Amino acid sequence: MVSVELMVTLKIPDVTALTAANAIRRRLGYAETLAELHRADYYCLELETAGADEALGLVRDMAEHTNLFVNPNKHAFHVRLLDDRGKPVEGNGNKTVNVLVTDPADASPAGILSSLRGMAAYGDAVTAVRNGVLWTMRLTADSDERALEMTEDITVTRSQSQGVLLNPHFQKYEVWMGS
Questions:
Q1: Which of 30, 114, 153, 177 is the most buried (most CB within 10 A)?
Q2: What span, in angstroms and rounded, lies between the C-alpha atoms of 101 and 153?
Q3: Residue 9 belongs to domain spanning
Q4: Whole-number Å distance between alpha carbons of 55 and 20
């Protein structure tokens, strides 16, 4: 079993990410510490393939030749192995932190899986699909621990002055450092 992540981003400026970054800087007080904020539609596909290269190629093919993930007129995409998640990113004193926000009640992964299983080229290879929104932020912090504390404060909505990226009443999240 090989797990491949597919991240889909807009080719044009992402106004949702820009608005969230503005709120984080102005309303939450992170003007000096939030260097960047990016958003991507996230998919993790589990595949039964002969190896990692075949799995990566298959997911690239799905992104390019189906309309389930990418509209080539407005989206760009990137694929990587789940095992490559969290590799360190070097950069001028900033810490890169990723937050994957998921909705456990979202039925769209089942629909995507059903559609892929109905396609001869992918049917038997794909065994599971997960999706969510991947937020990637670069924070100025003196340690990984401080970056993770800031990420928690920025992410989980608890009041008007704390958190903007997820509602803890119905969404879940996971955090990792690096790429």
A1: 30
A2: 14
A3: 2-177
A4: 34
CA distances from 140 to 85, 134, 172 (A): 21, 20, 25
Place of tokens 């704390």: 162
Cross-sheet strand order for the sheet of 75-81:
75-81, 2-10, 34-47, 126-140, 94-102, 172-177
Number of domains in the chain: 1
Give the C-alpha separation, 160 to 69, whole Å.
Answer: 33
CA 132 vs CA 43, 121, 173: distances in Å: 7, 25, 9
Residue at 84: amino acid letter: D
pLDDT one-digit tens code per residue, 60-72 = 999 999 999 999 9
Which 8-state DSSP code applies to residue 74? Answer: T
* DSSP-assigned letters across all residues of 76-117: EEEEEEGGGTT-----TTEEEEEEEEE-TT--HHHHHHHHHH
